[in-house]
Design brief:
Mago nashi protein, alpha+beta, 5 helices, 7 strands
Length: 162
């Protein structure tokens, strides 16, 4: 009986997606408002109004992540089980500033995890732990990407949504 219980528990624990991310064969894409970052190409792009030709012609910057920054992102993915989040989910969550969505695509060994999280502040008492995980992951990404000099020199977008 103990052997069957052990085998059952082993099978259950192995069935969960427990891939630990490592730096080789890892890259990600991240969207926030009118910004997009692709770590594979090291390109950060900010969108501007279509008729603002001056800004549209100079809206992409090459930014490189250090090994330490990549490791910080990978640690966040591993420690907070980001790969096990649903691909598309939403909830009412803590008071957070805009945007109303978080979109991250993580590519590991040619396998894609595409996460789209939408949220609303219509009922801030409702909360979900999955939402907190992705919001905290976004904060880590923001602290790295938006601290780059090349990103800071870009003018803010002139696209706004109501």
């Amino acid at each position: 009986m103990k052997i069957y219980l052990f085998l059952l528990l082993s099978l259950f624990s192995c069935s969960r997606h427990n891939t630990k991310v490592q730096s080789q064969n890892f890259y990600f894409e991240y969207w926030k408002d009118e910004d997009h970052f692709n770590s594979k190409d090291s390109l950060f792009t900010r969108n501007y109004e279509a008729n603002d030709q001056m800004k549209r012609s100079d809206n992409t910057r090459k930014i490189s992540l250090t090994k330490e920054e990549i490791n910080k992102i990978i640690n966040e993915v591993n420690n907070h089980d980001i790969l096990n989040l649903p691909n598309d989910f939403s909830c009412n969550i803590l008071p957070v500033s805009d945007p109303n969505f978080i979109h991250v695509k993580i590519i590991i060994n040619n396998k894609i995890k595409d996460i789209l999280f939408t949220y609303s502040r219509s009922n801030p008492k409702l909360n979900c732990s999955k939402g907190e995980k992705i919001v905290n992951f976004r904060k880590v990404l923001d602290s790295i990407i938006y601290d780059k000099a090349n990103v800071k020199e870009l003018p803010p977008t002139n696209l706004y949504y109501e």
